[in-house]
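Posted in: Structural Biology > Protein-Ligand Complexes

Title: Requesting predicted complex, biotin in pocket

I'd be grateful if someone could produce the 3D structure tokens for the following input. Sequence and ligand are given below.
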Amino acid sequence: IRQRSFYFDEVNSTNAFMLSHAQELKSGDLCIAEYQSAGRGRRGRTWVSPYANHLYFSLFWRFPQGMAQAMGLSLVVGCSLATVLTNMGVTGLGLKWPNDLYLDGRKLAGILVEMTGQADSECQLVIGIGINMSMTAEQGDKIDQPWSDLSDLAQSLDKTELMLNLHTQLCLDLQQFEQAGLGTFINRWQESDLFAGREVVLSMGNNQIAGICRGIDEQGAVLLETPEGIKGFVGGEISLRGA
Ligand code: BTN
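-- Reply #1 --
Done. Output follows.
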């Protein structure tokens, strides 16, 4: 059975649309919009989604064995984005654990994974991706963190081609992830890891752990080399030490 794509000129949120239609959807189905009136970011934030300038889409995927099977998924998605953009000529990319893609040290794309279904039987995932294509100064002013876009490559980068390449790569990578787990992505992550080998601080609530970033493990934990040895962490926000 073929995959389906839903294309909207305007929608509240491509993630919200996919979540509310989860029953009817198959792995690989896609929802794309030119404009989102209520684009969602992580941690309850808004994803500023002005008309036609950028890429907003969601991919649907089923995991028959439940949530445990989907752990580390956002890292796989980050690898897919980095691979496609690199193949299309973008340089200066960096993956920031666990969910962001940076260009020249500023955020280029965000990933928001949401799920429905039971934790212990099949779960359904909606993988939402927003990529800044060409930001106007006025739009950029509304964003509360340093951002970058792909406007330097506007001449050579076609949005439709990018979308198709992303869909192909994501489907390939998610199949590989489903069959072989996160282990097969550790090297790819390492190649694009924004903080690899650098001194970072991981903030978890009021706790701060300092260490040297040593990539990820097979569970998707970020590895920090501390005076007590290398330790894995599954939560928190990572930043450069002193930044
Ligand atoms: C983040 O906060 O970094 C995640 C941003 C994710 C934005 C994308 S745009 C398409 C999809 N639909 C949404 O409402 N959000 C995601």
